[in-house]
């Protein structure tokens, strides 16, 4: 993924990114200086990083914004199936029933984040960590 830029090559905030988007501090530390006017060298100087890190950080923020937007979308058949596969990888065949139970209880027009939260609430801490790793591998977390 390439970093969003203005027409002049100046780094810009990715589409969909807001001040409320949850990001790691290291990303916000750089994005705080990205205003669509400063070039990458100036942002790097202010953030005390290299221009390459600025570009990589803006690209990373775009990926985070994309995932955040995806989590607010309603659950689709494909996303429910992907979540089911991730749970099965962690708890075995019972994972299919866990996802089906949440969908039966809340309906299928819930945001993906709600499905993920409800399923994760049924897992141990170690299982949640494994579940998140599987979701990340599929681009869902």
TrEMBL record:
InterPro entries in alphabetical order: DUF8082
Domain DUF8082 span(s) in chain numbering: 81-136
This protein's name: DUF8082 domain-containing protein
Species the sequence originates in: Deinococcus carri
